[in-house]
Amino acid sequence: MARPTIVLVKGIYYPILANGGVLANLVTILILSRGNCGLSKCISVYLVAMATADLQIMIINVSLYYIFSYHFPHSFLAHTPVCMFILYMTTVTLDLSVWFTVSFTFDRFVVICCQKFISKYCTERSAAVVIITFTLLTFSKNIPVLFALEPEQIINNVQWGCKSSVFFFTSRPGIAFIWFYSAWGVWLPFTLIALLNCLTIRRILEANRARRGLRGHRFENECDSETENRRKSIILLFAISVSFMLLWLTTALSLVITRLTNTGYYRGDHRDPGYIATETGAMLKLLSSCLNPCIYAATQRKFREELKKLLTSPWTLILRLVRKRELKESSQVQASA
Fold first, then answer.
1. Would strands 149-150 and 158-160 be described as parallel, antiparallel, or unpaired?
2. Which residues contact 15 (CB under 8 A, 6 or more apart)?
3. Distance CA 60, CA 52 (A)
4. How does residue 132 score in pLDDT terms, banded at 50, 70 and 90?
5. Each residue's pLDDT tens digit, 292-335
6. Whole-angstrom Cα distance, residue 34 to residue 297?
7. How many CB atoms lie within 10 A of CB 295?
8. Residues near 194 by Cβ (< 8 Å), separated by ≥ 6?
9. Strands 163-164 and 149-150
10. Which of 119, 121, 202, 307 is 20 to 30 A from 15 (CA-CA)?
Protein backbone atom coordinates (compact mmCIF):
# COMPACT_ATOMS: atom_id res chain seq x y z
CA MET A 1 0.00 0.00 0.00
CA ALA A 2 1.35 3.41 -0.99
CA ARG A 3 2.36 5.74 1.78
CA PRO A 4 0.18 8.84 2.24
CA THR A 5 1.38 11.93 0.43
CA ILE A 6 1.75 13.97 3.63
CA VAL A 7 4.12 11.34 5.05
CA LEU A 8 6.28 11.41 1.91
CA VAL A 9 6.38 15.20 2.00
CA LYS A 10 7.46 15.18 5.66
CA GLY A 11 10.27 12.74 4.91
CA ILE A 12 11.76 15.16 2.38
CA TYR A 13 10.78 18.48 3.93
CA TYR A 14 12.07 18.17 7.50
CA PRO A 15 15.67 17.06 6.74
CA ILE A 16 16.04 19.96 4.30
CA LEU A 17 14.51 22.36 6.81
CA ALA A 18 16.76 21.14 9.63
CA ASN A 19 19.97 21.52 7.62
CA GLY A 20 19.06 24.92 6.23
CA GLY A 21 17.61 26.22 9.49
CA VAL A 22 20.54 25.23 11.67
CA LEU A 23 23.04 26.75 9.24
CA ALA A 24 21.04 29.98 8.75
CA ASN A 25 20.57 30.63 12.45
CA LEU A 26 24.15 29.72 13.38
CA VAL A 27 25.46 32.17 10.77
CA THR A 28 23.03 34.84 12.01
CA ILE A 29 24.13 34.41 15.63
CA LEU A 30 27.80 34.52 14.64
CA ILE A 31 27.45 37.66 12.53
CA LEU A 32 25.27 39.57 15.00
CA SER A 33 27.52 38.65 17.93
CA ARG A 34 30.43 40.41 16.22
CA GLY A 35 28.58 43.71 16.49
CA ASN A 36 29.68 44.98 13.07
CA CYS A 37 26.23 45.29 11.50
CA GLY A 38 25.64 48.90 12.52
CA LEU A 39 22.83 47.90 14.89
CA SER A 40 22.35 49.16 18.41
CA LYS A 41 23.16 46.81 21.28
CA CYS A 42 19.46 46.70 22.19
CA ILE A 43 18.45 45.46 18.73
CA SER A 44 21.34 43.00 18.67
CA VAL A 45 20.15 41.44 21.94
CA TYR A 46 16.68 40.82 20.50
CA LEU A 47 17.95 39.51 17.18
CA VAL A 48 20.46 37.14 18.80
CA ALA A 49 17.75 35.89 21.19
CA MET A 50 15.37 35.29 18.28
CA ALA A 51 18.02 33.48 16.26
CA THR A 52 18.92 31.36 19.30
CA ALA A 53 15.28 30.38 19.84
CA ASP A 54 14.94 29.52 16.16
CA LEU A 55 18.11 27.44 16.34
CA GLN A 56 16.65 25.50 19.28
CA ILE A 57 13.51 24.91 17.22
CA MET A 58 15.59 23.45 14.40
CA ILE A 59 17.44 21.15 16.82
CA ILE A 60 14.64 20.10 19.19
CA ASN A 61 11.42 20.44 17.21
CA VAL A 62 12.63 19.45 13.76
CA SER A 63 15.64 17.19 14.33
CA LEU A 64 14.75 15.39 17.57
CA TYR A 65 10.97 15.39 17.36
CA TYR A 66 10.07 15.19 13.68
CA ILE A 67 13.10 13.31 12.35
CA PHE A 68 14.80 11.10 14.95
CA SER A 69 11.75 10.30 17.10
CA TYR A 70 9.72 9.40 14.03
CA HIS A 71 12.31 7.39 12.09
CA PHE A 72 13.74 5.64 15.19
CA PRO A 73 10.62 4.77 17.20
CA HIS A 74 12.43 2.21 19.39
CA SER A 75 15.42 4.34 20.42
CA PHE A 76 15.94 5.87 23.86
CA LEU A 77 14.03 8.92 22.60
CA ALA A 78 10.88 6.76 22.69
CA HIS A 79 11.05 6.28 26.47
CA THR A 80 8.09 8.15 27.90
CA PRO A 81 10.06 10.50 30.22
CA VAL A 82 12.38 11.48 27.36
CA CYS A 83 9.48 11.79 24.96
CA MET A 84 7.54 14.01 27.38
CA PHE A 85 10.56 16.24 27.92
CA ILE A 86 11.07 16.63 24.16
CA LEU A 87 7.42 17.56 23.66
CA TYR A 88 7.62 20.01 26.55
CA MET A 89 10.68 21.66 25.02
CA THR A 90 9.01 21.86 21.61
CA THR A 91 6.27 24.04 23.09
CA VAL A 92 8.80 26.12 25.03
CA THR A 93 11.01 26.86 22.03
CA LEU A 94 8.06 27.83 19.85
CA ASP A 95 6.71 30.19 22.51
CA LEU A 96 10.13 31.76 22.97
CA SER A 97 10.48 32.41 19.25
CA VAL A 98 7.03 33.99 19.06
CA TRP A 99 7.34 36.21 22.12
CA PHE A 100 10.86 37.34 21.29
CA THR A 101 9.36 38.49 17.99
CA VAL A 102 6.63 40.37 19.85
CA SER A 103 9.25 41.94 22.14
CA PHE A 104 11.32 43.12 19.20
CA THR A 105 8.22 44.55 17.48
CA PHE A 106 7.31 46.44 20.65
CA ASP A 107 10.85 47.78 20.89
CA ARG A 108 10.58 49.18 17.34
CA PHE A 109 7.16 50.63 18.23
CA VAL A 110 8.67 52.49 21.18
CA VAL A 111 11.51 53.86 19.06
CA ILE A 112 9.17 55.30 16.42
CA CYS A 113 6.01 56.18 18.36
CA CYS A 114 7.10 56.71 21.98
CA GLN A 115 10.41 58.51 21.74
CA LYS A 116 10.14 59.81 25.32
CA PHE A 117 10.75 56.28 26.60
CA ILE A 118 13.68 55.41 24.33
CA SER A 119 16.33 56.21 26.92
CA LYS A 120 14.55 54.10 29.55
CA TYR A 121 13.29 51.11 27.58
CA CYS A 122 15.43 50.76 24.47
CA THR A 123 18.66 49.79 26.22
CA GLU A 124 20.77 46.66 26.28
CA ARG A 125 19.90 46.02 29.92
CA SER A 126 16.15 46.41 29.36
CA ALA A 127 16.30 44.05 26.40
CA ALA A 128 18.13 41.44 28.49
CA VAL A 129 15.54 41.79 31.29
CA VAL A 130 12.68 41.33 28.80
CA ILE A 131 14.31 38.23 27.28
CA ILE A 132 14.95 36.63 30.67
CA THR A 133 11.42 37.45 31.90
CA PHE A 134 9.72 35.90 28.88
CA THR A 135 11.99 32.87 29.14
CA LEU A 136 11.01 32.21 32.76
CA LEU A 137 7.31 32.80 32.05
CA THR A 138 7.40 30.47 29.07
CA PHE A 139 9.00 27.59 30.96
CA SER A 140 6.40 28.00 33.74
CA LYS A 141 3.43 28.42 31.42
CA ASN A 142 4.11 25.15 29.56
CA ILE A 143 4.29 22.91 32.63
CA PRO A 144 0.68 21.66 32.04
CA VAL A 145 1.94 20.07 28.82
CA LEU A 146 3.56 17.37 30.96
CA PHE A 147 0.15 16.46 32.41
CA ALA A 148 -1.47 16.39 28.96
CA LEU A 149 0.59 13.35 27.92
CA GLU A 150 0.56 9.69 28.90
CA PRO A 151 2.50 6.56 27.89
CA GLU A 152 1.48 5.02 24.60
CA GLN A 153 2.27 1.51 25.84
CA ILE A 154 3.93 -0.27 28.77
CA ILE A 155 6.18 -3.24 28.03
CA ASN A 156 7.83 -5.13 30.94
CA ASN A 157 7.03 -2.22 33.24
CA VAL A 158 8.84 0.18 30.88
CA GLN A 159 6.83 3.10 29.54
CA TRP A 160 7.20 3.73 25.82
CA GLY A 161 6.03 6.55 23.60
CA CYS A 162 3.74 9.50 24.24
CA LYS A 163 0.17 10.24 23.34
CA SER A 164 -2.35 12.86 24.26
CA SER A 165 -4.29 12.08 27.41
CA VAL A 166 -7.95 11.65 26.49
CA PHE A 167 -8.94 12.31 30.09
CA PHE A 168 -7.01 15.59 30.15
CA PHE A 169 -8.27 16.96 26.84
CA THR A 170 -11.89 16.07 27.56
CA SER A 171 -11.81 17.63 31.03
CA ARG A 172 -12.68 21.24 31.67
CA PRO A 173 -9.10 22.17 32.64
CA GLY A 174 -7.87 20.49 29.47
CA ILE A 175 -10.31 22.36 27.25
CA ALA A 176 -9.42 25.62 28.98
CA PHE A 177 -5.72 24.88 28.47
CA ILE A 178 -6.27 24.32 24.74
CA TRP A 179 -7.89 27.71 24.37
CA PHE A 180 -5.28 29.37 26.54
CA TYR A 181 -2.47 27.63 24.65
CA SER A 182 -3.89 28.76 21.31
CA ALA A 183 -4.46 32.33 22.54
CA TRP A 184 -1.04 32.69 24.18
CA GLY A 185 0.89 30.98 21.41
CA VAL A 186 -0.79 32.51 18.36
CA TRP A 187 -3.80 34.79 18.73
CA LEU A 188 -2.45 37.19 21.35
CA PRO A 189 0.98 37.57 19.68
CA PHE A 190 -0.70 37.97 16.29
CA THR A 191 -3.01 40.68 17.64
CA LEU A 192 -0.17 42.53 19.34
CA ILE A 193 2.11 42.37 16.29
CA ALA A 194 -0.67 43.53 13.96
CA LEU A 195 -1.71 46.35 16.31
CA LEU A 196 1.83 47.59 16.96
CA ASN A 197 2.72 47.44 13.28
CA CYS A 198 -0.42 49.37 12.29
CA LEU A 199 0.32 52.09 14.84
CA THR A 200 3.96 52.25 13.80
CA ILE A 201 3.15 52.42 10.10
CA ARG A 202 0.56 55.13 10.71
CA ARG A 203 3.13 57.14 12.63
CA ILE A 204 5.68 56.76 9.84
CA LEU A 205 3.19 57.85 7.18
CA GLU A 206 2.16 60.91 9.22
CA ALA A 207 5.81 61.87 9.69
CA ASN A 208 6.45 61.49 5.96
CA ARG A 209 3.51 63.73 5.05
CA ALA A 210 4.62 66.38 7.52
CA ARG A 211 8.19 66.21 6.25
CA ARG A 212 7.13 66.61 2.62
CA GLY A 213 5.10 69.68 3.57
CA LEU A 214 8.05 71.29 5.32
CA ARG A 215 10.50 70.53 2.53
CA GLY A 216 8.48 72.36 -0.16
CA HIS A 217 8.16 71.72 -3.87
CA ARG A 218 11.70 72.68 -4.78
CA PHE A 219 13.09 69.71 -2.85
CA GLU A 220 10.70 67.13 -4.25
CA ASN A 221 13.26 65.41 -6.43
CA GLU A 222 16.09 65.47 -3.90
CA CYS A 223 17.16 62.33 -2.16
CA ASP A 224 15.76 62.12 1.36
CA SER A 225 17.60 59.48 3.35
CA GLU A 226 15.20 59.75 6.28
CA THR A 227 12.18 59.08 4.07
CA GLU A 228 14.00 56.15 2.51
CA ASN A 229 14.74 54.70 5.96
CA ARG A 230 11.08 55.03 6.91
CA ARG A 231 10.08 53.29 3.68
CA LYS A 232 12.37 50.39 4.54
CA SER A 233 10.85 50.28 8.04
CA ILE A 234 7.37 49.95 6.55
CA ILE A 235 8.52 47.11 4.29
CA LEU A 236 10.16 45.34 7.23
CA LEU A 237 7.09 45.69 9.44
CA PHE A 238 4.78 44.39 6.69
CA ALA A 239 7.12 41.43 6.23
CA ILE A 240 6.88 40.65 9.94
CA SER A 241 3.09 40.78 9.98
CA VAL A 242 2.47 38.88 6.76
CA SER A 243 4.97 36.11 7.50
CA PHE A 244 3.64 35.55 11.00
CA MET A 245 0.01 35.55 9.81
CA LEU A 246 0.54 33.19 6.90
CA LEU A 247 2.86 30.75 8.64
CA TRP A 248 1.00 30.48 11.96
CA LEU A 249 -2.67 30.87 11.07
CA THR A 250 -3.08 27.26 9.89
CA THR A 251 -1.70 25.98 13.18
CA ALA A 252 -4.05 28.16 15.22
CA LEU A 253 -7.14 27.06 13.32
CA SER A 254 -6.27 23.36 13.28
CA LEU A 255 -5.49 23.37 17.02
CA VAL A 256 -8.88 24.85 17.90
CA ILE A 257 -10.82 22.62 15.50
CA THR A 258 -9.03 19.26 15.88
CA ARG A 259 -7.42 19.65 19.34
CA LEU A 260 -4.55 17.58 17.93
CA THR A 261 -1.45 19.02 19.58
CA ASN A 262 1.27 16.63 18.39
CA THR A 263 1.59 14.08 15.60
CA GLY A 264 5.05 12.67 16.13
CA TYR A 265 3.62 9.51 17.67
CA TYR A 266 0.32 9.62 15.79
CA ARG A 267 -0.93 6.13 14.94
CA GLY A 268 -4.27 7.01 13.36
CA ASP A 269 -5.28 7.50 9.74
CA HIS A 270 -2.64 9.61 8.01
CA ARG A 271 -5.20 10.61 5.39
CA ASP A 272 -7.50 12.14 7.98
CA PRO A 273 -8.14 15.85 7.23
CA GLY A 274 -7.42 16.79 10.85
CA TYR A 275 -4.02 15.13 10.73
CA ILE A 276 -3.17 16.71 7.37
CA ALA A 277 -4.21 20.17 8.62
CA THR A 278 -2.13 19.79 11.77
CA GLU A 279 0.93 18.62 9.85
CA THR A 280 0.59 21.40 7.27
CA GLY A 281 0.36 23.99 10.04
CA ALA A 282 3.42 22.52 11.74
CA MET A 283 5.48 22.64 8.55
CA LEU A 284 4.52 26.26 7.92
CA LYS A 285 5.18 27.52 11.44
CA LEU A 286 8.55 25.77 11.58
CA LEU A 287 9.45 27.37 8.27
CA SER A 288 9.15 30.76 10.00
CA SER A 289 12.19 29.87 12.09
CA CYS A 290 14.21 29.88 8.87
CA LEU A 291 12.66 33.10 7.60
CA ASN A 292 13.11 35.13 10.77
CA PRO A 293 16.85 35.67 10.25
CA CYS A 294 16.12 36.83 6.70
CA ILE A 295 13.36 39.22 7.78
CA TYR A 296 15.09 40.81 10.74
CA ALA A 297 18.75 40.71 9.78
CA ALA A 298 19.56 39.61 6.24
CA THR A 299 17.74 42.61 4.74
CA GLN A 300 20.31 44.91 6.38
CA ARG A 301 23.07 46.01 4.00
CA LYS A 302 25.85 45.70 6.59
CA PHE A 303 24.62 42.25 7.54
CA ARG A 304 24.99 41.17 3.92
CA GLU A 305 28.48 42.62 3.87
CA GLU A 306 29.40 40.68 7.01
CA LEU A 307 27.86 37.54 5.51
CA LYS A 308 29.97 37.99 2.39
CA LYS A 309 33.10 38.41 4.52
CA LEU A 310 32.21 35.30 6.51
CA LEU A 311 31.72 33.21 3.37
CA THR A 312 34.86 34.45 1.64
CA SER A 313 37.18 34.44 4.68
CA PRO A 314 38.06 30.70 4.47
CA TRP A 315 39.03 31.04 0.81
CA THR A 316 40.97 34.22 1.53
CA LEU A 317 42.89 32.42 4.26
CA ILE A 318 43.65 29.51 1.94
CA LEU A 319 44.89 31.87 -0.78
CA ARG A 320 47.14 33.65 1.71
CA LEU A 321 48.64 30.35 2.87
CA VAL A 322 49.21 29.26 -0.72
CA ARG A 323 50.89 32.56 -1.57
CA LYS A 324 53.13 32.37 1.49
CA ARG A 325 54.12 28.85 0.56
CA GLU A 326 54.90 29.89 -3.03
CA LEU A 327 56.98 32.86 -1.84
CA LYS A 328 58.84 30.64 0.59
CA GLU A 329 59.59 28.06 -2.11
CA SER A 330 60.71 30.75 -4.56
CA SER A 331 63.01 32.32 -1.97
CA GLN A 332 64.52 28.89 -1.23
CA VAL A 333 65.14 28.33 -4.96
CA GLN A 334 66.81 31.73 -5.30
CA ALA A 335 68.97 31.09 -2.23
CA SER A 336 70.09 27.71 -3.57
CA ALA A 337 70.88 29.25 -6.95
1. unpaired
2. 67
3. 12
4. very high
5. 767 755 577 777 777 788 777 776 667 666 676 766 666 666 66
6. 13
7. 17
8. 241, 245
9. antiparallel
10. 307
Q: What is the pTM of this model?
A: 0.82
Amino acid, res. 245: M
The runs of H, that is alpha helices, within the chain are 5-34, 41-56, 69-71, 80-113, 118-121, 124-141, 144-147, 166-170, 172-182, 188-215, 225-258, 273-293, 301-336
User: What is the C-alpha to C-alpha distance for residues 269 and 108, in angstroms, rounded to an integer?
Assistant: 45
Q: At what angle do helices 80-113 and 124-141 cross, to 10 degrees?
A: 140
SS3 302: helix
Q: Which amino acid is at 336?
A: S
Distances (CA, A) of 64 to 7, 26, 103, 208, 282: 17, 18, 27, 48, 15
Compute the distance between CA of residue 7 and CA of residue 246 in angstroms, rounded to an integer. Answer: 22
Radius of gyration of the chain (CA): 25
Report pLDDT for 215: 57
Beta bridge partners of 159: 154
Dihedral of CA atoms 311, 286, 91, 26 in degrees, nearest 10, equals 0
| Residue 138 CB partners (closer than 8 Å, separation 6+) | 92, 95, 96, 99
| Cα→Cα distances 18→51, 102, 206, 328, Å | 14, 24, 42, 44
Q: Using one digit for the tens of pLDDT, what is the confidence trace for 1-17?
A: 567 788 788 888 999 99
Q: Between helices 225-258 and 80-113, what is the axis angle to 10°?
A: 150
Provide CB contacts within 8 A for 171, sequence distance 6+: none
CA 181/CA 189 separation, integer angstroms: 12
Cα 117 to Cα 9, 110, 120, 121, 193, distances in angstroms: 48, 7, 5, 6, 19
Dist CA 86 CA 174 (whole Å): 20
Distance CA 46, CA 52 (A): 10
> How many CA within 13 A on the CB side of residue 331?
6
